[in-house]
Amino acid sequence: MRILFVIVTVLLLISCESAGFDSDKRQIRAKDEIRAKLPPRSTDFDVESFKEDTLHNWPDSNFKDPLQYSLGYVFKDSSGNIHHENGRVLFTPDGKSVIQTITGDSSQIH
């Protein structure tokens, strides 16, 4: 009986996903979205800073309070020049779909 209780308890603990796991998946997805927008033959991509926000003043009525992931990143272009840029990825409020990806220098990101 004790063994059955231990097995059931372990199965319940293993099958639960934490909210932190969802946040980690979104962070990885945001990084992949930014990387996909880099110029061809870019190398040495690395994220230098990362911030997660909820946008309460979002003008689009289709999505209320979307999630914004802001990333500071660096990469080397095909000619060897190093670029330090900022980008942001907007997710639906449930965090499962990407609404928009914006890349560029810090003057383009508001």
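(the above was protein one; protein two follows)
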Amino acid sequence: MDQMTSHHESQTYAHIVGACSGTLILVIAREIPDTYWIKSYLIMTAPSISVYLSTIANEIKSYVIKRYHHVKSLREERRIIRRIKALNKYPHVTDKDINLLTKMVSDARIREIKKMINSLVD
């Protein structure tokens, strides 16, 4: 459900960018005198340009969202590693517990790397 909502929001964003860019091109064309040759080209190409710009905007937004989530997961991983290292200061925590937590973090890293590889392959 969350992925579907995200896809819908992304499409809505792309549609808004497309509509605004097409409208802007037509407004610019309206202000150009009829004797200029570029006016007819702007009017004819406005739909194509707006579709192209909406596609580009959608790609940029999806790239930014992917990078944001990647950076967010890296920060979370670093925070967890700092907390595990901080456990060394407490006398009640055994080395066995710290090793277990470190192994769990390593396993989580491996799963994340495999997930990234699979997403690149698909």
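Reviewer note on protein two: The CA atoms of residues 32 and 104 lie 65 Å apart.
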